[in-house]
Amino acid sequence: MAWVSSREFAIKKSLTLRNLQKKINGSKKFLLLDTYFFMYYYTQGIGRGGRVLRIWDEPFSSEEEAQSFYEREVLGGALEMGGRNEYHLSGSANNGGLLSGGGGSAGGSVGAGLGGGGSAGGSALLSGGSALLGVEGIKPSVYDRSYLLALEKQRVVQEWNRAKKEKMRAKDFIYALNAKGEYSFELSENKLFAWLRAYKQGGVEALRDTRGKNRNGENKIKELECEELVVSLIKASKGGVNLNSMHRALHILLHREGKFDFEVFNSRRGEAVSYSVLRRFVQEWLRKHPMSKKLIEKGSDSVVSSFAPAVGEARRGITLNEIVEIDGSSLDLIIDAREYAEMLGVSVEGEWQKRFTLIQLIDTYSKVRSFFICESENKLGVARAIAKYISKFGKPKIIRGDNGRAFVSQDVQACLENLGIEYERTPAYSGWCKPFVEKSFGTLQNHLMEWMKGYIGHSVSQRQAIEFFFDRKERRLKRGHKTHLENLHLLSELNVILDDYVEAVLLNSYDEALGVSPREAFESKRNEARAIHEYELSAKLLPAMKRSVGKEGVSVGGYKWVHPKMFEHSSIYITQNINNLYQSFVFDLEMNFLGEAVIKDGNDPLVAEMAQSAKREHQKRLRAIKKGVEASRKEVEEGFLEGVRKIKEGATRIEPPKLKPLNSVMEREVKLKEASEGGELEKYTLSKNLQKSKKDYSWEACVLNKA
Predict the structure, then answer these.
(1) 536-581: per-residue pLDDT in tens?
(2) Measured in whole angstroms, how far is the alpha carbon of residue 430 from the centre of its chain?
(3) What does the angle CA 518 – CA 533 – CA 440 come to, to the nearest 5 degrees?
(4) Using one digit for the tens of pLDDT, what is the confidence trace for 58-72?
(5) Across residues 103-108, what is the average pLDDT?
(6) 521 neighbors 366 (Cβ within 8 angstroms)
(7) Class of domain 314-528
(8) Which of 8, 261, 360, 491 has the most other CB atoms within 10 Å of its CB?
(9) What is the top-level taxon of the source organism (predicted)?
């Protein structure tokens, strides 16, 4: 949508210039063409070129709509109108000015209003147009600040044209004009020559600064009273605001409410609200409502993370190991797990890609932390993570964690009870209740995992971008592969790298809240840390089992365990070593350590994970066998019935024996049925008739007939 010349308009509407001029002359205020109204006006040509016809190339569906546009764009813009109301707002300046030292006017009829020996610039022009009230036919509302500033620019251009004729240099002209201080701006060469070009192309109207005229105050959205509609579209956006889609949806909804014809928008003949106006409104609304913006783009978890009130001190521990937070998170890393498969007794050819889980414990006082990598967030992994922290930093008094299945399992709770540690449960999906461990996970994932082989990204979009590094042909995954990443770290390598990074970087990083590094904070309270012996720790990681002592000892895991002191008790507690299930420790009912129990069979170490994996593999094989058996049963049953049906179709049937007729009536019916089926009905009837018509010549018949 724009103002075009009469020639451009005639070509666009397939008219001749003569016919267009006739229609213009025959119209009073608006050009009526094919039941549509078009806006036009005359502007002053360059030099003595006379007036130039300008036409708005988009039609208006009604005269009221055209009138509204006329009042807003034409009268509000102080343009020269053709027709009944014609204003002449431009003219040539008088011969006074900068060179003569006298005060000049803006020129023409406007100059008379500015009057008098004074300057047309400065405060007189910027006083809101009060000096122009005496001009006949001019409304005060026509003159806004941008137009008054354009008149100042026009005067500068005209004075420069006169100065150029006197062969005055541009630098001298600019210096003299700025020295007088008559204008509300400071002139520069760039401004001067830019104004010259603009004035030459479009006159005083081209000198107006129209930037931001729709950004403040009223705009199309407010005029149509559809602010609530646009806000509803913003709030209904999913995953972000799509302005192109919203622009179209807005016009569809405006069409539903009867405020705009969608066909006009769809055919690109007009629009109720421009894309730029909508974009500015949406950006301004999102800027004023950051929480809604975050909710639309990132979701509720991000809103909680960014806007939840951070009141008070999150550091709850007042001494070392008083409160330790625990949590688990999946690594943003793919690992080559061949070593892990060999440990579990699983045969793997080539590379076995697997994503492991990271379990972390962090002290809320000193912020010392430890990480443990495990296959998944299971009870054995949690127990080993607790053991790793205790072996490095001592036994915590309270462990705070969420209600994850592994953390609240009976085995983990029994382990904590054996160790004398209290477990404090936080509400579900409330990461802010354990901020230290959540923050530490983010630090590790962002600062370490991003720079390692096998990194897969923190989000779906990042993972897609990493995977799409390969073309479509290369994106066909091999059997057993989760990604196209190669040369992945082994599990043992990752454990070493992780421990080295935590020890060298994280524990020695300066912490603003502490004022020192975590290592220094731990060293200052080292004497308060309580260590646990390795054997005691290994014995208490798995739950203690109560057993009755028999003449052959106690039975655990299919083995008979014996110890001399256990026979002094009727019942004892026995626990297995998590690192060697062939090693067990015996306690009395008051959990006093009695000693290490032994079995007669081998002493090869049996890791708990290995036993668990063997059990899983057995269950997996059993399920596969059962699945095959069920499939075979179903196939055989269906095939058997189908075979029986086919055999039945081809088999010879046994006919039942025929029944003898009980009386003459039944005999007649049987014969009629046979005759009708075999075509013998006529023969049977004929034979009966012949029997009736045949004469009997025997002597008995003769005697009877005579009698």
Answers:
(1) 787 788 888 888 988 778 888 778 888 888 878 889 988 888 777 7
(2) 21
(3) 25
(4) 777 777 777 777 666
(5) 36
(6) yes
(7) alpha beta
(8) 360
(9) Bacteria
Contact between 23 and 33 (Cβ < 8 Å): yes
> In angstroms, rounded to a whole number, what is the distance separating the alpha carbons of residues 483 and 477?
7
Local structure of 333: helix, strand or coil: strand
pLDDT given for residue 180 in this prediction = 82
Beta pairing, strands 323-330 & 398-401: parallel
Rounded CA gap, 483 and 388, in Å?
31
Q: Rounded to 5 degrees, what are φ and ψ at 524?
A: -70, -20
Q: Which of 288-302, 333-347, 656-670 has the highest mean pLDDT?
A: 288-302
Question: What's the pLDDT at 509?
Answer: 92
Quote the pTM value.
0.53
Cα dist from 142 to 51, 72, 202, 690, whole Å: 21, 10, 19, 131
Across the chain, mean pLDDT equals 76
Nearest to 589 by CA among 542, 537, 539, 549: 549
Alpha-carbon distances of 338 from 91, 299, 346, 455, rounded to whole Å: 89, 38, 9, 18
On the CB side of 50, CA atoms within 13 Å amount to 3
SS3 labels along 556-597: ECCEEEECHHHHHCCEEEEEEECCEEEEEEEECCCCCEEEEE
Which residue from 302, 315, 442, 326 is spatially nearest to 388, judged by alpha carbons?
Answer: 326
d(CA 375, CA 385): 12
Calculate the CA 560 to chain-centre distance.
Answer: 58
Please give the C-alpha separations between residue 283 and each of 13, 102, 232, 288, in angstroms, as whole numbers: 38, 50, 14, 9
